[in-house]
Amino acid sequence: MAYTISASGLRKRYGDVAAVDGVSFDVEAGEFFGILGPNGAGKTTVLEIVEGLRRADGGEVSVLGLPPWPRNPRLLPRIGVQLQSSAFFERLTAREQLQTFGSLYGVPAARADAMLEMVGLTDKAGVQVEKLSGGQAQRLSIACALVHDPELVFLDEPTAALDPQARRNLWDVLAGISTEGRTIVLTTHHMDEAESLCDRVAIMDAGRILQLGAPAALVRGLDAPARVSVASGTLPVEDARALPAADEVADDGVSLVVSTRDPGAVVAALAAKDALAGVRIGGATLEDVFLELTGREYRA
């Protein structure tokens, strides 16, 4: 199979720090691929190597069948890059920004309005970028990365520092871009974002890939118990501990939570006791996988 991206044994050191330590992965055409990890895991360095912005100390990488380093002018019209921190030309409007970016690729100025519509910024076309909100500026940044209609798009933590509403809004934009058949590579430390958007993810820490696969497959592989919760006071804690298949029970004064590997048996037993008030059933998530692999200690 001819992969859109093929990376093998990538390495990058800064003094005594191995920022990237033998990273290998492939990305298929049309795939939404996520690179996850805590701060300092090496996500951005890997992305910069693949984009051709940084030279690897070792290993090989191919992008659309071509080497990205030294900076490859044949790749530039075929890739779009949204960096972790974007900078715009001062005092230009959103439309003018897109027209300026597009002109670098010979794109007609009229395409700017189509891109503004795609990212939901038509009503901000005449607004200077300094007056856009954080979420609006991020959407404009993505539009700039897509203005020349690239085959492959790199997004480096596109929702960092956005509020929940702005993040969800941007997710809708990214999901729409993905349905157009583009290949997208995303770095993020938001597990819910990756679980919602990505076909496959690579979880990194200390410069290495710890696990790689579809989010649902990684969650199933964790083999974690389900959590059945009801309103606190619905059932005494001692009675909850006596329920069939109950492994652990906790009551924080708001919810009574039963951890179990057989949630059906627990729910049936609760129903028999007429104790289903506010019942909710939750399984493991990608965040549980992430924490299992990378630990829970504070990272500066």
UniProtKB/TrEMBL annotation:
InterPro entries: AAA+_ATPase (IPR003593), ABC_transporter-like_ATP-bd (IPR003439), ABC_transporter-like_CS (IPR017871), ABC_transporter_ATP-binding (IPR050763), P-loop_NTPase (IPR027417). SMART domains: AAA. The keyword Nucleotide-binding applies. Residues 5-231 form the ABC transporter domain. Transmembrane segments: none annotated. GO terms for molecular function: ATP binding. Pfam families: ABC_tran. It is found in: Cell membrane. Keywords: Antibiotic resistance, ATP-binding, Nucleotide-binding, Transport. It is a peripheral membrane protein. Belongs to the ABC transporter superfamily. This is ABC transporter ATP-binding protein.
